[in-house]
């Protein structure tokens, strides 16, 4: 089932309960960069934003990072500008333990006009969103898909392949982001049954994923022409979907 039940958050923002994940959808077109975001970013973040060659990319990074800091500040009762990030060897961010004694975890993804931000308590998670643009399937399928998945693609109607690939890719990317290992694990080592009406995920040769039955995966509807997925290394999981305003 694809989750579509996005809602506006009413009242105070509570810390995620055990077994609960919060996912926020941000429409970047509705957000101005403005002083309020720039004012809470670190000097390092401002320098990173300035290095983007295109204004759209600077806008996406600045707004998404500002909202991430704002939400983290609300969850942790801290000033957003005071949040300190740590990074693993593959670049996945986490929080300084002194600021985060309850082990809030988070992950962020953005594509085109939307960002997704996921938060949980003491649980590994990953989220991914992708926009349906011009995808070079002939180049990407052999890299992303296992031999069996490639065989499945050959049996599909050409008109269905791009959408199916996006759905498959967002599931894989969310799982890889959950592990925090980047693309050091090749996505073709994860298999996702196509079509995805009742997806069964199989994993080959990745010790961290051998207990795949203990993972939760959730497909998210962001907007037409987008695919998105959430992966959580725990189950059962209750997922709450909120729109940022």
Topology:
Blueprint lengths: L1 E2 L3 E2 L11 E8 L6 H5 L4 H9 L3 H22 L8 E3 L5 E3 L8 E8 L2 E8 L3 E7 L5 H8 L2 H8 L3 H22 L10 E3 L8 E3 L12 E5 L5 E7 L5 E6 L2
Parallel strand pairs: 1-11, 2-13, 3-13
Antiparallel strand pairs: 3-7, 4-5, 6-7, 8-12, 9-10, 11-12
Overall pLDDT level: 90
Structural class: alpha/beta
Q: Please report the first level of CATH classification, the CATH class.
A: Alpha Beta
- CATH architecture label name: Alpha-Beta Complex
**Largest pleated sheet:** 5 strands, mixed
Helix share, percent: 25-40%
Strand content: 25-35%
Structure description:
- The protein has 245 residues and is an alpha/beta fold.
- The protein has a single domain, classed as 4'-phosphopantetheinyl transferase domain (Ribosomal Protein L22, Chain A).
- Helix content is 30%, strand content 27%.
- The protein has helices at 34-38, 43-51, 55-76, 137-144, 147-154, 158-179; strands spanning 2-3, 7-8, 20-27, 85-87, 93-95, 104-111, 114-121, 125-131, 190-192, 201-203, 216-220, 226-232, 238-243.
- A five-stranded mixed beta sheet has the order 2-13-3-7-6, covered by helices on one side. Strands 1-11-12-8 form a four-stranded mixed beta sheet, covered by helices on one side. The chain has a two-stranded antiparallel sheet with strand order 4-5.
- A hairpin with a 5-residue loop joins strand 11 and strand 12.
- The protein is globular and about 50 Å long.
- The mean pLDDT is 90.
């Amino acid at each position: 089932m694809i989750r579509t039940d996005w809602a506006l958050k009413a009242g105070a923002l509570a810390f995620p309960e055990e077994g609960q994940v919060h996912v926020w959808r941000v429409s970047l077109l509705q957000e101005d960069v403005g002083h309020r975001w720039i004012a809470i970013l670190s000097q390092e973040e401002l320098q990173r934003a300035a290095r983007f060659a295109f204004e759209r990319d600077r806008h996406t990074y600045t707004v998404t990072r500002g909202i991430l800091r704002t939400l983290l500040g609300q969850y942790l009762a801290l000033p957003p500008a005071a949040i300190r990030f740590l990074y693993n060897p593959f670049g996945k961010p986490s929080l300084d333990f002194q600021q985060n004694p309850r082990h809030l975890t988070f992950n962020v993804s953005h594509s085109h006009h939307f960002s997704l931000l996921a938060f949980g308590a003491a649980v590994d998670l990953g989220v991914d969103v992708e926009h349906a643009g011009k995808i070079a399937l002939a180049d990407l399928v052999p890299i992303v898909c296992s031999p069996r998945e490639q065989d499945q693609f050959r049996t599909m109607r050409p008109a269905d392949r791009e959408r199916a690939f996006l759905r498959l890719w967002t599931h894989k990317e969310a799982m890889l982001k959950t592990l925090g290992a980047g693309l050091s694990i090749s996505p073709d080592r994860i298999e996702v049954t196509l079509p995805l009406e009742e997806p069964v995920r199989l994993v080959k040769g990745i010790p961290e994923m051998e207990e795949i039955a203990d993972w939760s995966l959730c497909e998210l509807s962001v907007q037409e022409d987008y695919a998105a997925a959430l992966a959580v290394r725990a189950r059962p999981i209750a997922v709450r979907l909120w729109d940022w305003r």
